[in-house]
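Notes for week 9. Today we move from apo structures to complexes. The key idea is that a small molecule is not decoration. When we ask for a structure prediction with S-adenosylmethionine present, the ligand SMILES becomes part of the input, just like the chain. The input block below holds both the sequence and the ligand string. Read it once before you look at the output, and try to guess where the molecule might sit.
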Amino acid sequence: MAGTTLLSIHTSFVPNFPYSSLYQRPHFLPSLSRFRTRCTSTSTTSSGSRRAPKVSASGTIPWGCETDSLENASALEKWLTESGLPQQKMDIERVDVGERGLVAVKNIRKGERLLYVPPSLIITADSEWSCRKAGDILRKNSVPDWPLIATYLISEASFMESSRWSRYISALPRQPYSLLYWTRSEVDTYLVASPIRDRAIQRTNDVIGTFNDMSSRIFSKYPDVFPEAIFNLETFMWSFGILFSRLVRLPSMDGKVALVPWADMLNHSSEVDTFLDYDKASQGVIFPTDRSYDPGEQIFISYGKKSNGELLLSYGFVPKVGTNPNDSIDFSLSLNKKDECFKEKIEVLQKHGLSSSERFPLQITGWSSEMKAYVYLIVSPPNMRQYFNEMASAASNKTNTNKALNYPELEEQALQFILDCCESNIPKYTKFLERDGFLDSIATNSKSVSRKMQLKQLAIDLCTSERRILFRAQYILRRKLRDIRSGELKALTIFNGFRKFFKK
Ligand SMILES: C[S@@+](CC[C@H](N)C(=O)[O-])C[C@H]1O[C@@H](n2cnc3c(N)ncnc32)[C@H](O)[C@@H]1O
């Protein structure tokens, strides 16, 4: 959520993910129901630590609340204040953007620091467990922070009122808005045109893989501590959905990842440039405002410089088309298998950690020098082989110079290649956006219609913004190519003029 916070978590999430998925299963379909698990007695061991909750026939773990209800949010606010959160200039309210959000109750100056959430009120991998044994087992097994905090959240939720986090957990969304909550068929139907589809599938597989791994290595070995009725794929999905949409990395706390109650009620705006961080001087999580606010105005932070697709993936929303200056689309590029230098090119790419097929972000403002270097390599003829290494190195961003590569002799071909790729992608979007009536064929009841309407709208917003980037790139490329070609034509005309002149 906060700068270099969720952004860095999410972008680095999959590569760093310790249990990368070997499980190419169909998507898990959350039932969206409450989990009828029973967690009544919490007994105390001789060491004073509480045992795992006993499963009995009574009690229903609420797993958060509906986000349009403010009741639990107000109870959270009251508990935080009683637990040491200083007086705030913001209040939780129902808002137009993001359902619930923090709204100024007093004038707030630009540059003012807000929040001051003390470390005792944040959840990290070091937090104390209601069931100490569960925490000890996970740490003994060196479970990394993400799955550890996911399990912690489930464990604390199962303790209900006897967990110190019960007010916080009760105010969390029962169904976090992330693509983890889309079924495989929804992902396939609505994201058919977008490269986000593959990332959504990959992410869900990673979470399933992590759960399977935790389950076979740990949960199944300690069924008393991690009963299946509570620690299962469904609760894991909920918990990971919460982490994807709320966990922050705090650079000044050695990059620790944390859930920060209260701060995680702030919604995102691509137009603000302020992030959460730990402030060593005041010993609290704060953010400095980058503008002034009048009472009644919603206060936003930045969840990082993310594209609309990345925001949909983790947070389940898409900003209005044209409002996100960081918007980009994952642009797929591949070497041509018929290229006579195919093998040589693959070798240099591999040397620099790249492969014959790569994705680069294409932004509304253009493309990166890495992408351009990769394209140069793709279009290079054999007589440019002495530059292959330089190109692959620049494509991998490992070159020490900041200078973008420039090969005038390849420029036209490189631009034409990018243009061809744009033009081959655009029809997929157009087909999706212009296909009407497909909603009627899959909606069966009014509840599913409204869910389908919501998902379809998100997909339409995403595809419209991604196609807009492609249209813009197409326009720029066509203009550049026209300039190159008219320049060449002019040079040729002058050259022919000279030739005729000297022939006389
Ligand atoms: C960190 S929480 C913010 C608090 C949240 N609104 C709540 O009521 O719990 C992130 C979630 O807020 C919502 N959200 C944040 N910024 C938004 C925005 N600009 N537009 C729509 N929804 C937003 C999304 O549902 C996202 O998953």
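Residues 6-303 form a domain with the set domain protein methyltransferase, domain 1 fold (CATH 3.90.1410.10).
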